[in-house]
Amino acid sequence: MKTQLKEDRVLAGKEAVAELYKTGYFGQPKGNELELSLVEAAFLLSRGKLEVEIDDIRLDFRAFFEQASLRQPNFELKYIVYKDLKERGYYVQPSAVDFRVYPRGSHPGKSAANIFVHVQSERQLLPVKLLQEAVVSAENVRKQFILAVVDGESDLTFYEVKTAIPEGDMPEPYPAVKTDATFLEDRVIVWDARASETLYSRGFYGKMLDSERLQLSLVESLYLFSSGVITVLDRRGKIFSFDEFIEKASEIESSFLRKYNAYKNLRDSRLVVKTGFKFGTNFRVYRKVESIEKIPHSEYLVNVIPADFEFKLSVISGVVRLANSVRKTMLFAVEKGEKIEYLDISRTKM
After folding, report:
1. Which of 21, 79, 260, 286 is catalytic?
2. Would you state the CATH architecture of domain 179-348?
3. How far apart are CA 294 and CA 248, in angstroms?
4. Residue 204 and residue 12: Cα distance in Å, rounded?
5. For position 347, what pLDDT does the model report?
6. Fewest beta carbons within 10 Å, which of 148, 180, 300, 331?
7. For position 1, what pLDDT does the model report?
């Protein structure tokens, strides 16, 4: 079957509608012609299903592949993913998000596509804003969003990305105590034994310095400070204002306020939030803790990122693999003004 390469499309005659579209759902009928995308044409060309010409010159697979790569950004990556999905038995059609994929056992015309696939090289940076927009667009039409990452050896890793609203089962996050505390070098100490015990064993804040005194992290301290549970003084006895605390904490840790906003959002959602340092993340998060003696496994790992963040795919690969290996959900908390939005990213199989 002869076809013509025209800009970023391959055009076939009306016989292709019956032979390619109605039997394999390749391309889109346009009047009396069938319009094939470049990846569809390359796939069919590799299987001897068509011939492609440009200006009456027949292109072999190599020549066509080179032409297609010149005409479409990331063509070779998209072809690798398209070929993989087709060989897995899926019906796949190009779309604005790269591909839409139909459920197994179904095809265009029988049911709607249920998966949107976006293709990305491991070497490319992925702006979180674009990822958020793509995921929300998919979820608005009830589709699963899959990020297909092609590595340097052309192996594929698939990630499911979805929005999340983490919620816990803890009671009121502010224990009924009021006490003062001292801001030391990079942490805060509660000196009162009774207040320390209440905050530690009932609110699950901090870590005991000894049997009477409690150490708090900076985000825990500001959270309790903001609710009036603790008053914070410097080492000379001067009381900090809220803004002064933020200024000093931000000198110690440049991303402090971003981390605090996520911490506050999670705590306000009735979750217990602890450092995730041992997992290489900002926080580990528990839905419910009933006893300080019997702390369960955390459900979430959380990294906090700014709204203009650009993902390195190697970073996603590392933290998501770790989260999966310890049976936790990896969440990325994206700062959006005073709001926090969450992306749940996990490896998946197609």
Report:
1. 286
2. 3-Layer(aba) Sandwich (3.40)
3. 35
4. 67
5. 96
6. 180
7. 85
For the chain, the structural domain boundaries read 2-161, 179-348
pTM of the model: 0.91
Burial class (CB in 10 A: 0-12, 13-18, 19+), 37: buried
Please calculate the CA angle 121-102-97 and round it to the nearest 5 degrees.
Answer: 35
Domains 2-161 and 179-348 share a fold: yes
Indicate the burial class of 273 (C-beta count within 10 angstroms; 0-12, 13-18, 19 or more).
Answer: buried
Q: Give the residue among 201, 26, 11, 48 at the shortest CA–CA distance from 99.
A: 26
**In b/e form, how buried is each residue of 311-333, taking b as 16+ CB within 10 angstroms?**
bebeebbebbeebeeeebbbbbb
Q: Which amino acid is at 21?
A: Y
Residue spans of the chain under pLDDT 50: none
Determine the pLDDT at residue 174: 80
- The four Cα atoms 271, 281, 230, 339 give a dihedral, to 10 degrees, of -70
Q: Which of 297, 312, 342, 349 is an active site residue?
A: 297
Please tell me whether residue 235 adopts helix, strand or coil conformation. coil
DSSP 20: I
CATH code for the domain defined by 2-161? 3.40.1350.150
Residue type, 241: S
Please tell me which residue in 91, 205, 328, 342 is annotated as part of the active site: 328
Question: 297 an active-site residue?
Answer: yes
Amino acid making up residue 318:
G
